[in-house]
Amino acid sequence: MQTVKLFFEDAYIDKFDATVLSCEPVKNGYAIILDKTAFFPEGGGQKADEGFIGSVKVSDVQEVDGEIIHYCSQSLRDGESYSCVIDWEKRFSRMQNHSGEHIVSGVVHSMFGYDNVGFHMEDNYVTVDFSGELTREQLDEVEDKSNRAVYANYKINCFFPDSSELDKYDYRSKLELTENVRLVEIENTDLCACCAPHVRATGEIGVIKILDFMRHRGGVRIVMKSGYDALSDYREKYKSVYEISNLLSAKQEAVSDYVKRLQDELDSVRREYNQFRLKVADNDKRNLVFNNGISYFITDCYDAEMMREVANYGMQKSNLCLVFSGNDDAGYSYIAGSLKLDMKMVAKTVNGALAGRGGGRDTMIQGKVSAKKDEIINFVNATVFE
Q1: What is the pLDDT of residues 3-34, one digit of tens each?
Q2: pTM score, two decimals?
Q3: Into which CATH architecture does domain 92-234 fall?
Q4: Count of C-beta atoms within a 10 Å radius of residue 347
Q5: Which fold has domain 4-86?
Q6: For residue 301, with 0-12 CB atoms within 10 Å meaning exposed, 13-18 middle and 19 or more buried, which class applies?
């Protein structure tokens, strides 16, 4: 006995009673077949419904060789009837998104002649791939026309035409279909082959929003949201804009210009700061200490670029230049440079004497030591590198 597919009869059935025809153990749970079901199995780019059969959670639903398999964490008794409940919030959100995608795909096809060549529905957004490229301005036109179709509250009709009459329908489809073809007709907007549940009328979609787009395999991939997901997206972004406008004491509509002005000011400050850092390092070159052919400098506020600036200078004036930056609690970063010595040997000596780690190649090495400042000074003054 094949399961009666209630989701084809009425997409709005969210509660029903059904009898277990079979319950078989499978990996990580049980595979259950019912005499009838409103649980939609994954298909047409839409994820499977979730919910409960009795008190047992349905985590996945798949159609396998014509049978609707409900995957559950616990077993159910063969021949027993159970009350079933679908997670309606997820189902309806997916219906809104899927119906919204049909409208957008239909509008793109009618305006530009491009085909929908890929469709995927995530938990709270949809991606659609089209066979040609579109600009942001063109997508804005698509979005406007799609939402006008929503506001018109056009009827959506899902039906199985007789196979002998299929040729008379001009419908969109990614595959060549010949039998059991289910068409979804959106009044004045689109006709497409699809197996998934849809809303009854476009007004139930609420709103369609195209969020992003990118080139993809010679065409374009768009990211969109519809219905509750679009509303949630707007709410989150409004919250961010509201908080930013308060932080900046700027009007919400002027936040972008204000941030751009701050970015320009920050870039200017950053340039001045970089110049100041290098000037400090240049001035500190005179503070290098020379001893036994070694020059060294210890500070608490240098970054790597400043350390290299002093080391590059010191290695020109001595056999080896060592620059340390840090403090006794956190340890000291170091950079060492030489045009004359084997730097692998220098790294081994420094790290071994000062409890450090690091290395490099050619004329410069870097690392970090945990020795105290006095220990570093004593080491440098007492060591001869040859």
Answers
A1: 999 999 999 999 999 999 999 999 989 999 99
A2: 0.77
A3: 2-Layer Sandwich (3.30)
A4: 21
A5: Elongation Factor Tu (Ef-tu); domain 3 (2.40.30)
A6: exposed
